[in-house]
Amino acid sequence: MPTKPMPIKKKPSVKKVEKVAPAPTPAPEPAPVAAPEPVPEPAPIVEAPPAEAPPAQAEAVPPTEDGEAPATPPAEGGQAAPADGEAGEAPEPEEPKAPSPPPPPPKEPTSAPLDLFIEDKNDTSVTIIWSQPEVVGSSGLDGYVVELCQDGTEDWKAVNGEPQKSCRYMIKNLTTGDRLKIRVVAVNAGGRSPPVALPEAVLVKEVADRPKVRLPRFLRQRYVANVGDKINLTVPFTGKPQPVVSWSKDGQPPDKRRVNVRSTDRDSILFIRAAERDDSGVYEMTVKVDDFEDKASLTLQIVELPGPPAGVKIADTWGFNVALEWSAPKDNGNTEITGYTVQKADKKTGDWFTVMEHYHRLNATISDLIMGNTYKFRVFAENKCGVSEEAAVTKDEAKIVKLGIESKTPEYQEHDFSEAPKFTTSLANRATTVGYSTKLLCSVRGYPRPKIEWLKNQMVIGDDPKFRQICVQGICSLEIRKPVSFDGGVYTCRAKNNQGEVMVSCKLEVRQPVIVEAEKK
């Protein structure tokens, strides 16, 4: 009778414990802030052979209907796993599993971008610029999304297809005149950040460049022109968009019949065909862009020749002189009077001669007139345009009367120029060598001309041919020709006239020449 196989006891942990090592749990996704703890390796199963690689996981096999466990499938290599009953040993207790790692923290969006403002704009585009968010978070920053909508609505639309990394963006192809609201959102794995929006809606138009009048240097001072001149003044300016230009004269609009104004996109021209004195005044130019404006003023002065002095008269006549007085002209030609021109005319000839030009006073004295003649006078006014066309003429005439004149020669006392002799330069001691001529010099003054004598050792030299005596223009010289040792001594120069006598002396030394030893041999 066949023997029944021994029933195998059921293990309560068959369904949970596998004979192979479980696959390692994947580590959580790394985050920039803190890395999760590493997952520990699972403990090896006792029943698995140590030398063979673990087989793939398989589901637990349920027992058969009669309560017996099915045969254990053979392991790799064709060997069957031993049964529990055959082993005859109780299974070892199972080691506990390692705890599962905590789930990664939820990803959060960044904070809102900072400092959004308009960098530039024109009639078709707006350029905005901003700063990165203060808090970025562990998820990093994927980029920024720029959104806009019409003012008065909340229909926000993104204008950049994908998030961009740059903190500057130009919104193009806008319609001039639209009023738009603009905002920027930062995007990362955690989603969208709170938006940062411009405080006010943006009007799409050309940026207003403040207007500026560039008044030329020569117009910053008074501009002077003569009556009848053509005035053509060009004043450049800047501004964006096209500024509105206007002119005024003394606070009032200029007379269009007299003053023409032509303006371009860069300058304005003030044109007067033929200037008149009434055109003088302060002209102000104004350029305006929106609420900004700039002004510049120039002073135009139209001048002409002055009128004649108001009147001239003869104030006094004496000897050969006539005193004149006159008044300033009533019409100065719209500029200051710079001087007067005075002329005289002899009644006999009637010819006018200029005696004064560019004279600044209102009175003058005319001198050097001819005795016995009768004179008339006239005065012209003068300004920067020139001399007046007319003159003011004296009504009266000035007659230079002949008078008896006696000439008396004054008596002068003759001056006494007498002076005693005086040496202005003394004799100086000299030294010479035997055979070499020498000269003694001194200078003397006096009136009448003093007599000069030379003495040697208190003895008058006289006409000795060895000595040559010269005295020219007070310079006295004594030349000693080829002196010898005997010619040494004290020499004296004596000057004498009727006012007195004076002497000066010096010492002359005559030395022997030095003979070199080589010459002696």
Number of helices: 2
Q: How many separate structural domains?
A: 4
The CATH class assignment of the largest domain is Mainly Beta
CATH topology description of the largest domain: Immunoglobulin-like
Could you characterize what this model shows?
The chain is mostly beta strands and 521 residues long. The chain is 2% helix and 41% strand. It has helices spanning 84-87, 517-520, and strands at 114-121, 126-131, 143-150, 157-158, 168-171, 179-188, 191-192, 196-197, 202-203, 209-213, 223-226, 231-240, 244-249, 260-263, 267-272, 281-289, 292-303, 312-318, 321-326, 337-346, 352-359, 363-366, 374-383, 386-387, 392-393, 398-399, 419-425, 430-433, 438-447, 451-456, 459-460, 467-472, 475-480, 489-497, 500-511. Strands 3, 4, 6, 7, 8 and 9 form a 6-stranded antiparallel beta sheet that branches. Strands 20, 21, 23, 24, 25 and 26 form a 6-stranded antiparallel beta sheet that branches. Strands 28-35-34-30-31 form a 5-stranded mixed beta sheet, with no helix packed on it. A hairpin with a 6-residue loop joins strand 3 and strand 4 (157-158). The longest helix has 4 residues, at 84-87. 16% of the residues are buried. Residues 1-88 have low confidence and may be disordered.
What features would you highlight for this structure?
521 residues, mainly beta, Immunoglobulin-like, 4 domains, disordered N terminus
